[in-house]
Please model this.
Amino acid sequence: MILEPIQRPELSDKTKLAYEQFERLIVEVKKKKLPEEIELVINKHITQLNSVTDSGKILRNEIRKEQSKIVGMLAQKLKIVPINYFRKTWFVLGMTVFGLPIGAALGLSLGNMAFLGIGLPIGMSMGLAMGTRMDNKAKEEGRQLDIELKM
Model:
């Protein structure tokens, strides 16, 4: 059974938004059938977050860190991801994996390396397309959480 994050009514606006998002993530994770060892790791992250006594920037950073660890573990071990997870990931990967080599090849073939930047939007669009396709596949297979992480 997954633990509940403690209630923190005294939070500032930014921290409160981050904390509410973390709570929604935990609610969505609870809806999925998870192996016991994964639940134990998630509980460890929640306990770590519950142990933070600060209510400002330190807590907000800790929320992001623990949320990132939980989402990364779910994506890696169970292939369970939040909405637009792959799109956000492949956005950057597309620019670096596809865009830079395309731009470099274009720049070298035309003899002007100023064309290096032309490959970036090409790679970006390729990455967005791949990420969107992977997100749609995850949704069809029921591996997508009903939450989109904003931070």
About this structure: The mean pLDDT is 92. The chain is about 70% helix and 0% strand. Residues 86-130 form one domain.
